[in-house]
Write a structure and sequence with these properties.
nine-stranded parallel sheet, 15 helices, 47% helix, binds N6-methyladenosine-5'-monophosphate, alpha/beta, TIM Barrel, nucleotide metabolism, metal-binding
Length: 358
């Protein structure tokens, strides 16, 4: 993609619905953290350097990389730092609504509970100072500084259940999400290594989350486990992520159910979940007007950005500016927020039409 197109994609308002906190950490921050832990003798810096710099990783290798990232981002202050940086990075490329997901973690040796992990995340959110952040109905900061209108980003959180977790641990995460609703936690995500754990293990917690009014999105179809894919579609989550390895029957089911799909192009290609961009299911879903949203998944790990994903879609699938704008604006329909937020976002998109030369 040429520079001019990329700049245009950056200037367009965008909605990010599938971003994992620890997958979105800047490489420069990971290096800095690795160097510091290397100096303390906790890790060998050169080992980490090789792993972080590697470009092509299978899904299995990517998930192993997360275990390393989690060692680097263990303590509360680092969680606060990366949250602040990730939100600022999305805001700087004109993401106007961000649903950031993360797996609350417990670590007895440093006194971290799932709740204190999330408190550290919230502290990072409050530390953002380059833009105004709306993180809960009453959380909006001042719109103007010295009389100048400031950029604004809505941030909402999804708590992820890792597929390695037990039913009890999953339930604990759902209860934490309910406890933190007033702070902008709106839903639950199921993620992690798709060949680990069984759907039945998470179902009680997911059912409870739904009964309590939390939104649900599931990583679905990263591997061709058709029985599980079928069960997930029949659960009717509000959205699913990826949808790469569906057989014909499950495609039909998904389309009939009209469940919106979070599409992560670079992630799918880099992890070899999809062998080539020209056979990506985006094309079929887009042609059929199936609800979908372009997302980054792990912008740090895959060295991408939401603007980059739009640029990639534009060049791979010959989308013009109007189509890209429409695609970005349509994502508002699938956000896990109320009609008031949706109306504000639509107004933001409308206001940008002239500037974007549409
Ligand atoms: C490549 N596609 C993917 N498929 C499945 N799970 C993924 C993922 N990318 C990220 N995660 C999940 O998100 C965690 C990192 O962020 P948090 O520690 O939660 O902030 C990973 O450990 C994994 O469980």
């Amino acid at each position: 993609m040429n520079r001019e197109n990329m700049e245009w994609c950056v200037s367009m308002p965008k909605v990010e619905l599938h971003a994992h906190l620890n997958g979105s950490v800047r490489n420069s921050t990971l290096f800095e953290l690795a160097r510091a832990l290397g100096e303390k003798g906790v890790i060998v810096f050169s080992d980490v350097e090789n792993v972080i710099m590697k470009d092509d990783r299978t899904l299995h290798e990517v998930l192993k990389l997360f275990d390393l990232i989690h060692i680097l981002t263990t303590d509360h202050s680092t969680i606060t730092r990366i949250t602040k940086e990730v939100i600022e990075d999305f805001a700087s490329e004109n993401v106007v609504y961000l649903e950031l997901r993360t797996t609350p973690k417990r670590n007895g040796s440093i006194g971290m509970s799932k709740r204190s992990y999330m408190d550290a995340v919230m502290e990072g959110l409050r530390a953002v100072n380059s833009v105004d952040v709306d993180y809960c109905p009453t959380g909006l900061k001042n719109d103007t500084v010295n009389g100048t209108a400031r950029k604004k980003i809505y941030v909402r959180f999804l708590l992820s259940i890792d597929r390695r977790e037990s039913t009890e641990a999953a339930m604990e995460t759902v209860k934490l999400a309910l406890e933190m609703r007033d702070l902008g936690v709106v839903g639950i995500d199921l993620s992690g290594n798709p060949i680990v754990g069984n759907w039945g293990t998470f179902l009680p917690a997911l059912k409870f989350a739904r009964e309590q009014g939390l939104y649900i999105t599931l990583h679905c179809g990263e591997v061709p486990n058709q029985e599980e894919i079928k069960a997930m579609i029949e659960f009717l989550p509000q959205r699913i992520g990826h949808a790469c390895c569906f057989d014909k029957e499950n495609w039909k089911k998904l389309k009939t159910a009209k469940i919106p799909v979070e599409i992560c192009l670079t992630s799918n290609i880099r992890t070899e979940t999809i062998s080539s961009i020209d056979i990506h299911h985006f094309v079929d879903l887009y042609k059929e007007k199936h609800p979908l949203a372009l997302c980054t998944d792990d912008s740090g790990v895959f060295s991408t950005s939401l603007s980059g994903e739009y640029g990639l879609a534009s060049s791979a699938f010959s989308l013009g500016k109007t189509e890209m704008f429409q695609l970005a604006e349509n994502a508002i329909d699938f956000i896990f927020s109320d009609d008031g937020v949706k109306a504000n976002l639509r107004a933001t998109f409308k206001a940008s039409v002239e500037k974007l030369d549409l």
